[in-house]
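Hi X.,

You mentioned you wanted examples for the new student's onboarding notes, showing what a folding record looks like when two proteins sit in one file. Here is a clean example. The first protein comes first, with its sequence line followed by its structure tokens.
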Amino acid sequence: MPLSVPPDSTLGPLSPTDPQRMFRRWWKRLPPARQDRVATLAPLLSVLLFLAAIITAFWYLRNEEHERELESVKRDTEIAQQQIRLRLIENQEQLVRMAREVVTRAIDQDEFLGQAVSFARERPEVVSLAWIGADQTVRQRHLSPNHPGELLRLAEPPPLPNFVGPLVPTATALQAGGEPAWAFAAARDLRQPVYSRPFEGTGALMVFQVHVPLIDRSAFAGTLVAEYAVESLLRYFVPPEVTRRHAISLIDGTDRVLASSVSREPGSSGQRNSFVQEVALAPSGNGLVVRGEGWRTSIGLIGNTLFWMVVALSALTVWMLLGTWRHMHRRSQMQTALISETNFRRAMENSMLTGMRAMDIEGRISYVNPAFCAMTGFAEHELIGRRPPFPYWPPDRTEENTRLLQQELQGRSPAGGVEIRIMRKEGSMFDARMYVSPLIDARGHQSGWMTSMTNITEAKRIRDQLSASHERFTTVLEGLEAAVSVLSVAQGDLLFANRSYRLWFGADSQGHTLLAGSAENLSVLREADESVDSFGGLPAREITEAAGDAREVFIEPMQKWFDVRARYVQWTDGRLAQMLIATDITSRRHAEEQAAHQAEKAQVTSRLVTMGEMASSVAHELNQPLTAITNYCNGMVSRVKNDAIEKPDLIAALEKTARQAQRAGQIIHRIRAFVKRSEPQRQPARARDIVEDAVELAGIEVRRRNVHIRTYVAQRLPELRVDPILIEQVLLNLLKNAAEAIDNAQLPPSRRHIELRVVPRYAQDEGGVIEFSVTDNGPGVKDEAMARLYEAFFSTKADGLGIGLSLCRSIIESHRGRIRAENLYNGTVVSGCRFAFTLPVELPPTVIEGATEAAAAAVNRTAPAVPASSLTENA
């Protein structure tokens, strides 16, 4: 039966270009047979698109599974290679250390054997460890108990040729002594650790060797040879979770499998679709490759499942098409009968939340919709035909409801509706609002009244809660000690002000302007012309959700400090407004100023305490020039009395006396400048001058303790903007602590020195900085005391006050720098301590690179070889 579209009398006039109208015209022009074919083609096209989508999804999932498995194999292979590489590097570093001890004769053959036993016991992958001399004789060796059947293959090696050019295992070399002989010659010529290629050891065990050369005063003295079992490297150092997921194997340069985590390779069983990843095994560089392999097993299952799913869905679609064609004829017959009734019921039945009630002129109920019945709880037959009083009227409100009904029947109901109380059938009550309009029939005569009723119980409850919430909110704001004000940005009117604001600033907007900073801040946002809305295109939501602005403001007329927090809000009428919350922080500011004053006093006190501790050393330092002056003066008096002095000799003696007096004056001047109380003053200063002054002051103390100071100051450092006296105080404190640590540890003279370094560097979190570091060879700082070093009144010394490092940290942080401490280790033994602090500067990259290279060169040299211009030693 052809598919037809019935006319819709409710549709209004359509424009000539309306797509719906054009489709209807095209559809009506088609013959019934063509309409049926078109109606069939649409579902068929949907089925084809569905099949295409399923095939595309299958192809995409297959490729995604392939990529995911390949990435998993690659990741596990790299993990296995990394674990083995780290183990080889760790062993190589241990062998290099042992080689260094052998060369320096720190150990003999028996001690070497003991270290070899410990080395092999802790490393199951080691087959043997041997000490081979330059003449290829075995000085000492140890066979690991983990591999009892494996012997060292260099016991009686043949003479080895000297290799020239690239060292590769040629046929001649391999015939002369095999892989061990080639590795021995390579280590001898290259003077660095060399790994052999894997070869077959005793008992068909695949092994390879590492030869660490022994260099004694630039002469080749033999090698340390460690032999590794390839299978043990794979067994012990590849994580079990990796071998459970994929097959991991070690292969050589000829693609021969030396060791594998599975008994047979996955590819050997005939399985396809495997994923292989190979990574070279560093640092050996001997042809060993780590191979990881995975394979797929679910491709057939996935393919069959999707295929039958597509078949089932296609069959279901065909069945649904047949059912649709079957019901098409029945639907067209029912559509005509429903159109007339649908047009009448549409306006009322669509409003499911609003109750509709129709009454005739006499007040008799003629119609109620389901929503009205659901609100009141009465069925339709219980309400149709009823006269007042209605059953949903509360008994105690009958007179009031009768009066309202008379107003409704007389047409005098208010346009905004009336609020009444409704009783449900089970007796519960709810509030409702009713709107009344006349009901006009087809001839234009009024046949009754149509009433719509809405349940406003929840809305009324929310309104009451909002009113109570507003009252509570206003009470809270009025009770705050902080001033809260809201100002309209456009008009500049004060929209809200709490009690604290009115108490401090009155009821006008002048106080808000003072707290905001200036009137210009708000005038920029105000309307220049009230008739033009300049905020029309601005995202008000973004402005109101932006983070607030917090700052401190001083109100001069009131002599008060306020912590002001400002942000923009959208007022209740939609206007953009600025809200300020100002808290009185005058007492806090006074406390901060007093704390800063106390910190300044503590700094001066710390310097006085330091000079008091150094009083005996200062007296001894001044005693030398004063004694020299006395001797010179007595000598000159004696020779003048005896007329035994010439004028040149007298002048020379007077000059020496003047120099000694000048020296004493400089010492006193430096001490007075250091302990003088003054306000912190930041000024341009050179790092070298600060270091020289601090070392000059600290030299008095360190000389008394027989400690040396070595200083290194990088060249071309930019100027610092600091208080030089405060930075000198930090350096003096660190130098004095280092000297005390060395002296208390009773170190030998060779270790009684302090290293002071000043170098530039660039830190990602700090930017360009100049780093001052003080390093000593003392016993270091205990771990439990490291976390409390900068705590006030905490000291590791029995007679310490515990304020030195606390003040140092305060001084450095006041200069926007950082200070840190760390222990230095020689293996697991603490060999000293290093205190370092940084001061920020602007550093060009060329200065950082040049200073870093110079500092690295200075570290690699010995102390006497460092130029005097950059590294000086003060006794």
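Then the second protein repeats the pattern, sequence line and then tokens:
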Amino acid sequence: MLKNYIKIFIYHLNHNKLFSFLNVFGLAIGIAGLIFSLLYWNDEQSYNDWNPEKDKVYQVLVQLTGMPVFSDCSLFLRPVLAKDPNVENVVYADSWYQKDKIVYKDKKVLVEKIINVETDFFALFPFKIIKGDAISALKDDSSIAISDAIAKRLFGEENPIGKQITCLDQMFVVRAVYQTPTNSSIAPDVVMNKMKELIRDNATGLFIFKLLLKVKDPSKIETTRASLEQVYNIDFIKREAQQEGFTFEDMANKIGHFEVFIEPLSKARLHSVADGYPEGRGNYQFLLIMVGLSVLILILSIVNYINLATANAVKRAKEVGVRKVVGASKSTIVIQFILETVLISLLSILLALVIVEITLPYYNDFLNKSLRIMGSQFYLQLILIVVLIVLFAGILPAIYVANFETLKVLKGNFSRSKSGIWLRNGMLIFQFTIATFFIVGSYIVYQQIDYLSNKDLGFKGDQVIAINLNFPKSDYEVANVGQNIYKKYSTIKQELSKIKGVDQVSTGLLSFDGFDNSLGGVLYNDELFKERTIAVDFGLFEMMKIEVVQGRSLNQKYASDTINSVVINEKAQKLMDMKEPIGKELIIKQRKLKIIGVVKDFNLLSPEADVSGMYFYHFKTVDMAQNIGTVFVKLKSDNIENTIADIEKLWAKVDSEYPFKYDFIDKQYARSYESYVKQKNLFSLLNVVVILIALFGLFALASYSIQRRMKEIAIRKTLGAETNFLLIELSKQYILYCIIGFLIALFPIYYLLNRWLENFAYRIEISIYPFIIGFAALLSLTLLVVLSRAYQATKVDVLKYLKYE
């Protein structure tokens, strides 16, 4: 019996090559899209799965009213945690990844993932120890643990344990070699413990160190969180009030309210409120969009398959009738057609896997991932996909075919029956609805990204490059650190200015990558404003084409500009409700500064955030030069490549330890909304896929529908019907379905795209034009397919269909 079913399947596959291909290819595209989404989903969801402690490890995050969520905490939390019976381990950590070279004898290895943590780090992140042991790995400030990859590069086949290496200008002894796990929120190359000195120097800081906890019972974590919040909102504010001579209430109003978040490691990748861990957060919204769209496309593919299968059933009506006459039951026919769906599904999955395997490298580039088709979880999901396709795409057509009336189909009257037509038409409308959603949605997404790409940011970053400065540690160990670093920067600035193609050189404690949201306190009329306070060098505003709208910019001609001058932006002026800001006094970092100018607002953050208030002062005004880490260079438009080559030659003398690296400012800012550009590209690609699948279904359904009406067409032609009349008659129902599908899609498009646009502080408003363009495009494609098939039908030989009448 099974052999007979397979023979029948092959026979129909061979005699309906085009529609069989459309069936298999349409399903394959839908399955391939879902496979891509599953690979991405599995990868993101697998973060920290390697860690058996992931549900007991927490990170402490803090938010002060009017400020972003910080992943840095204060040391005054330690005594409270020490008394908490539920807290098993407390680990403070310095700012995550540092970069430096490791030296062993005559070998040097540049390492970009060095972390400085307290002793119990490996109790929270139990990496597999290959050599040495975790207990002694961080026992003191001279011990160090390195990854197996670094050990191989540095020592080769030599045993690293007990060997002395130099890192961050200090001698260490290698106590452990560990294996870096995949998909971990922390994946360092080097782990050291130099926290004692830092803790001593920063004992009273508010936002200083990362704080990780390991607890005994996760269900009691809320008690711990509440106790930490109390330390901030009561103990800290009381202490500050006593020192400043304020009442507790006044100081609380001045500082604001602290909110403490304690997030489990198991949820940190996709559901954290801040970029707390060094490997960053995943984009949960993008992940949901990818999965949602791919599921939608698979549903479309299944609907397309059902439509084709039920339409094709007309050709197989007599086969079913004859089989019923010779004794076949409904269940037998259902099993046969379900088996055919299973075979079609298997062919589709094989083709989908081929598509995925070929295009996976491009997909990995798109996501900056290294995804592979493997894993028991993935194969189980693949089996589940087959089962779902068979259930939804196989059972309905099988039952539909099994219910054919034997007498009617054997008389040849089935083709005139209305049975199943409403089902197919309803599914065709559904296809039009999904196609409308993708066409209009992708156009709106394109408009938003185009708006961001062309929006006036308030600064001009083209032809400006940012170069990292890597001063040796010894430069920070002198008495006047700020003066020493500023002097070294000034020397580099002079040398850069001598290069022929260099127009301007400056710097500032700001970045244009969209992620630096550090805030400081500004006091005006005894009111505290938590905004951006930024130290800059002369010439930065002029270099970046930042417009001064009132007063003047910082200028080295005025001695006061390195003593007590400050420039604010328009947003800061608005926040402080200043009508005449020039000459007003502010207190920043306990210094009185006088406003000398107001600059036009410009955005340093990603498009998701609004412009914040900004206050600019020179490095010498408030000694901040020790934090200089980047130099900005404006290049002349001619011979940019030669200029960069000359800068690289200079850099070989300035910094021989690190490779020369630079980045164009405009490209740096563009990366701040890169994830949204990816969403636009994804939407555009899937839009093409959806249109193709919908057109496949429309082409097949129109072909079957017109084929059923060939005798009617022949009679109309005999009676003198013109071609134009016939074309209108054959296509008007599809135009109606197109309009209905379009109307159904309007609300979901408007609602969902408006939700997506809420991510942006700067956004377009949804107008009527995307809908008009989308409808015009959908209608044009519909008419192109239907009219082409209808026109062929009007050219047939009428005798072929009327000679037996």
